[in-house]
Write a structure and sequence with these properties.
The protein has about 260 residues and is α/β, with parallel strands linked by helices. It has nine helices and seven strands. A seven-stranded mixed β-sheet has the order 1-2-3-4-5-6-7, with helices on both faces. About 35% of the residues are buried.
Length: about 260
């Protein structure tokens, strides 16, 4: 098993330009240090339905209240580190929301990839982007993996999605193929989805899929910070999703619910 840069094509060139936009890095950096409430706000804002900052301060008042006063007036200037962080995040997310629908979709995907890479980089210096995995005697996948951790003997690959609607059979198949081919070569490989959406939404989407998904980890908006602390270790399909029993794998990722043959 070995990693390789993706061959550049028209899509790669266009998307690389978006990934290099300072706005992507700024939003991702703010999200990396954000709490769950701020991340939920960011997701709502970047959906692009409203672009008036006062509206978002009113919807999420506790994020903008003066420090130590959760009932404070959210329409006023930010006060305190938490409120100032929310204000900076809101401003950056509104810059994404104000773009056209197609561009907004591309920026959101790039932001989730950059966020995952930033969090993983807090525990590994071997994080790469847009890489393919090559196995002996197996045709290489056309589409590269969004983020990889290329530690010898403990590699990880992640496919990143803005929302649960991005989860489909093709994505699950590609992750499962990588996991199985690595196992055939005796190589440990963690494969997982990183979805900037609620766990419940992801589980509803996954329940509609019929392809094999055991062994594929799931990281959602609620558990993003665990990317920075430990390797994602998916549990088997029959284990309880919130189990944290001694000796079991960490609760950083959840198993794909249910399984079936391809």
């Amino acid at each position: 098993m070995r990693f390789q840069d993706a061959a550049p094509d028209a899509r790669h060139v266009v998307y690389a330009g978006i990934q290099a936009d300072p706005l992507v890095g700024r939003v991702a950096a703010l999200l990396a240090d954000a709490n769950l409430g701020q991340r939920l706000m960011a997701r709502a804002v970047m959906n692009g339905q409203r672009t008036d900052p006062a509206t978002w301060r009113a919807i999420f008042p506790s994020l903008f209240a003066p420090s130590g006063d959760p009932s404070g007036d959210p329409s006023g200037p930010p006060s305190g580190p938490a409120s100032q962080g929310s204000e900076a995040l809101l401003e950056a997310c509104l810059a994404v929301a104000e773009r056209g629908e197609q561009a907004r979709s591309q920026y959101r995907g790039a932001i989730v990839e950059s966020l995952a890479a930033l969090l993983l980089a807090r525990r590994s210096g071997a994080v790469r982007r847009e890489r393919r995995i090559l196995f002996d005697g197996v045709r290489a996948e056309i589409h590269p993996y969004d983020v990889t951790v290329e530690e010898p003997g403990s590699a990880e690959v992640y496919d990143c999605k803005w929302g649960a609607r991005g989860i489909n059979a093709e994505v699950l198949d590609q992750l499962d193929d990588a996991r199985r081919h690595a196992a055939d070569e005796g190589e440990p490989l963690v494969v997982a989805l990183v979805v900037f959406d609620a766990r419940r939404s992801c589980l509803v989407r996954l329940a509609r899929q019929t392809v094999r998904r055991e062994g594929i980890g799931l990281v959602t908006i609620e558990t993003l910070d665990r990317l920075a602390r430990r390797r994602v270790q998916p549990r088997g399909p029959t284990e309880p999703p919130e189990s944290t029993s001694a000796g079991g794998p960490p609760a950083g990722s959840s198993p794909m619910p249910g399984s079936s043959s391809r």
